[in-house]
Structures are given as C-alpha cells and as structure tokens.
Amino acid sequence: MDLIKVICGMLAVAFLLGIFTCGSHNDRAAVAEEFKNETLGEPTPGVTGESLASEENTTVEQANQGPAPPDSLILAKGESKMATERRNIEYKVRATARLVEAQGEKLFPSFREPKSPWYNGDFYVFVWAMNGTQVVYPPDREREGENMSGLLDAEGKPIGKLFIEAVRSESGEGWVDYSWKESESSEPAHRFTFVKKATFEGRAYLVGSSFYSDDYILCKNLTECPYLEEPGNIRVAEMLNPEDTDKNLDLNYSIAHSVIEPGENIAPHMMKNPEVHYILEGEGILYIDGIPVELQPDQLIYIPAGAIQTTYNTGNITLKFLAIDQPGWSEKNTEVFE
C-alpha cells in the first residue's frame, strides 16, 4: 500500500511539473524551430505559380489604392529580393497563425523575445484581438492593451479598420498598403502589412507583419544628397555610390546629379573609367578630347575612359545632368587639370 502511495505521489509531482514547465525555454526553442521549418526564403517546394496566384486573389480590395498591380501570377514568378521579402512576410505570418491555432497564447512571450524568429532587428510579428486590442507588439510592449481599431495612417487612411476587415473576409487574410511615419519628425514611408486570422479555443486573433517598399528607394529627393562644390564652379550631389551605402547593392556604378550655372564650366579633368552624361535641362557644350558636343535635354553622351573632358553652360538657365560612372566614381580615378 505504501508503495502505491509513493508511486501516485510521484505521478502527481510529474503532472504538476509538466504544467508549470510547458512554457519553458526548451519548449519555446522547439516552437522556434518549428517556425523556421514553416518559413521559407524561396517558394515552397511543390507550390506552383498558379497556387500562389490563387492565394494572391484572396486579398481584400482596398479603395483608392491607385492602379491595379500586375496579374498575381506574374507577381508569384518574381525572383527579386523584394519579391522574396513579400513572400517571406506571407509565409511567416501564415506559419505564426498556424502555431497560434495549435498552441494558443502560451506562444506570445516567445514572440516578444529579441533575436527570435518573430522579432529580429526591424522585423517583428504583431498580434491583435479581433476588436482591435493590441495583444503582442514587440517594439513597444507598453502599447500592448491599446485598442488600434481606429488607427490611421499619415494620410488619414483607416488602416486599423482595414486590417480587421481583411481578416474578417472570406479568405481570412490580406495585404494593406499605407503611408506610415515611424515618428513625428520622420518622413512618411510606403508600408505594406500582411494580416491573417488565427483562432484558438474560440478566441480569434489577427496576426500580422510588415515591410517598407521605401527601403528600395536609394534617394527620395536631392535634399537628402548634399551638394559638394567641385573645382570649376560645379556642384555635385552623389545620389548613388555602392561604396558609400550600408545597403548590400549588386551594382558597380555610381550616379551623380551635377549642376552648372550659366556662364560657368567644369575644370578639365580625365576619368580612368568610362562615363555617361544624361542631360536633364539647360544647354551647353561638352568637350571630349577637344571635340565639342552640343548639349540639350534628353541627350545621352558617352565619354570614353582616359578622355579629357570639360563642360560649359552656354545657356541662360542652370545646366543639370546625371553623371554615371562604371565602376563607381572615386577620387583616385579622377585627375583634374587646373
């Protein structure tokens, strides 16, 4: 009899330990591994363009979004970094929704952990209740509990309402695009959010994540590209140079916006690499090894490597052009003749 009591006691302790350790680190690690297995950087094996297209067709139509995007089958075939990021957002949100439907709220602490599959750098997954209450918001946990159903974008678009409408639709998911400001002082950026419904034991949630298309805009406007005074009374704003950006660009050329005022000229100089000038506005003369080329808007002029060049503004308005160098411009590849 005593032996039976001991065995029963041990079973009871084991049962209680099982309850209190169900949200342990090891358990969350297992869930994270499951999430990774659900998340793909490339289209899922066996998932064809047609099946992806059918998923695209389930998104909610939003009013006043401008021209319709290309056919969803075309979108599904995209192989760029942006296309992969878009698909990854969908995969991650859908995988998270499946995990929530299987295991419920006990996963939410894992979603808030930095450097986890759900919150890493600028990427995070958020969770709302269906009434708009923010349940999981990793970047700022103090905002959890706020009702976001009345959330507006920078232009007054009711994105909180649109998120909820998307997951209440027949498909239970959808994309919403909008203009978003990260802070009061920041410029609005174009943001895309994918949301999906997840239900656990009768409680429904909205799971979502986002990315910015503005991440692919290298120069929003020339005010972000400070002009440098160059010899010969020319001002140059470097719009793109792979050597001077923190973005991983598969490019080997640079683009500069050049300005010459009326009556001024660039000092004669020689580039060790070829260069192309695209004339934006104004008139002038470009000398290539002493040979004059008259400049007018919309012209594209090739300057061979090793040629001595100088440009004069012969008009009455500012001469503006783009200078494109391959490889990207560097001071060591330029020799100026004063």
Describe the structure.
The chain has helices at 2-20, 25-38, 49-56, 72-76, 81-103, 108-111, 159-168, and strands at 119-120, 123-124, 126-129, 134-136, 173-180, 189-200, 203-212, 227-230, 234-240, 254-260, 269-271, 275-281, 284-288, 291-295, 300-303, 308-313, 319-325, 334-336. With 338 residues, it is an alpha+beta fold. The strands form 4 sheets. A 6-stranded antiparallel β-sheet has the order 8-9-10-17-12-15, with no helix packed on it. A 5-stranded antiparallel β-sheet has the order 4-3-7-6-5, with helices on both faces. The radius of gyration is 29 Å and the shape is elongated.
Q: Determine the N-to-C terminus distance.
A: 106 Å
The total tally of domains equals 2
List the strand order in the largest sheet.
8-9-10-17-12-15
Q: Strand fraction band?
A: 25-35%
Number of helices: 7
What is the CATH class name of the largest domain? Alpha Beta
Write out the CATH superfamily name of the largest domain: PAS domain
Low-confidence stretches: 1-24, 39-65
CATH architecture of the largest domain: 2-Layer Sandwich
- Mean pLDDT comes to 78
Report the order of strands and helices. Answer: HHHHHHEEEEHEEEEEEEEEEEEEE
Structural class: alpha+beta
Secondary structure: number of strands:
18
CATH topology of the largest domain: Beta-Lactamase
* Major sheet description: 6 strands, antiparallel
**Helicity level, as a percent range?**
10-25%
What would you call the shape?
elongated
> Over all CA atoms, what is the radius of gyration?
29 Å
